[in-house]
Amino acid sequence: MRTKRAAKFGFCAGVRIADQKVKKFAAKGHLGDILGQVVHNERVVEEMEELGVHTVESLESAERGTIVFSAHGVPPSFHQQARARGLSILDTTCPFVYDIHDEAGSALARGEHLVFVGDPAHREVIGYTHDLDPSSYHVLMTVAEAARVDWSRYPKVRIFYQTTLNADDFEELARHIEARVPEARRADTICYATKQNQEAAHELGRDPEVDLILVIGGKRSANTRHLWEICARYKPAHLIQGAPDLRPEWFEGVSTVGLTAGASTPDYVVDEVEAALAALARSVGSPA
Ligand code: SF4
Question: What is the mean pLDDT of residues 1-18?
Answer without folding.
Answer: 92
